[in-house]
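Ligand-bound model needed. S-adenosylmethionine.
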Amino acid sequence: MAIHNKSHSNHALMSLNKLRKDNTWKQKSSDDFEKPKEVKIVHSIRDCCDFLRELPDESVQLICVDPPYNLELTGWDIYDNYIKWASKWIDEAYRVLSKSGNMVIFGGIQFRDAKSGDLIDIIHYVRHHTRFKLINTITWYYKNGMSAHRYFANRHEEIIWLAKTNDYYFDLDSVREPYLEEDLKLALKDKRLNPENTMKGKNPTNVWQIGRLNGNSKERVGHPTQKPVEIIDRLIKSLSYPGSVVVDFFAGSGTVGRVCIMEGRHCLMCDNDIASKEFFAKHLELMRNSGQSTAYKEIENISDFFNTDKD
Ligand SMILES: C[S@@+](CC[C@H](N)C(=O)[O-])C[C@H]1O[C@@H](n2cnc3c(N)ncnc32)[C@H](O)[C@@H]1O
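Prediction:
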C-alpha cells in the first residue's frame, strides 16, 4: 500500500512555510555577526561543577563537551553512579545557557559494561528530568578502529544536540557540503528542494563520516581521547556565532579552544588535570607551524571574562 506524503497537511510545517514566504521569519547566520577583534580564553584547572557554579545564568551560547564515557579506561573514567554525577553538570549547563543556546555531548551507546551509566542514561535523564529539547542525535562514523571477534567491530560514536528553547541558533549554511556536479543537476530538478538552498550546498545530515585521530595523526597533541578539529569546527560553526561564548568543561587537550581561536568565538575551558595546559600549548604550536593565527587573550578568572568587553 502506498503511503502518501502528508507534508501539505502538516499544520506546523504549513505555518512555518507561510512565515518563510511572508519573510517574517529569518534564521540568523554568521554573516549577521562580526568576528571579535580579540578572542578571550579562560583555561581553568579544577572540577567541572565548581567551575560551572561560577558562570552567570544564561551567559553561554554553546556548551560542547566530551565527558568521560565511563568505560573504565583510565582513572578519570570510572564512576560508581555515572548518571548521579552527570546530572549535576547537566543541570548547571541548562542554567548557564542563553535562550538561543545549544549543548552537545559526545558519548557512546555501544558499550556493554557501562553498568552505572552511559550516554543512554544521559538521554533518559535529559528527557525525563530537564527541560532540554533533544534536537538531533548525530552519528560520528569512522572507518578506522579496533578489530573484534565476538561482536561487530564498533565504528561509531554519538553526539547528542540539546537546545534550551525552540529559539535555538542554527546556521546550516555555514556547514553545508558542496554537491558533486551530477548530484547538483538532479537536486535542482527535485521539486521538493528549494533551488536557492540547493545552490548553497547540501545538508551534511546527522551521519558524519570523519576519521578518528590515529596515533600518528598530524593533529595529535598527546591526549588519549582527543577529538578531530573537523568535528568540533562543524559544531562550533553551526551552533554558535562569531563573538559568542563557547564552554567546554571537559577540555582535555583543548580542541574546542583551538577551534574557537580559528572561528572567532570566546571560550571558557576547564579540566581537572593540569596536563590540559601542556596539551593546549601543543595545539597552539601546531597552529603556528601551519601558519594559522594563534592570537587570543588569556583571562585568569571567570568574573574578569564576563566583565571585560568581549567585542
Ligand atoms: C574525553 S576527555 C576530553 C578530550 C577532548 N575533547 C579533546 O579533544 O582533547 C575528558 C576530559 O575530562 C577530564 N575530566 C574528567 N572528570 C572531570 C571533572 N570532574 N572535572 C573536570 N574535568 C574532568 C579528564 O581529565 C579528560 O581530560
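Confidence is low (pLDDT under 50) at residues 5-13.
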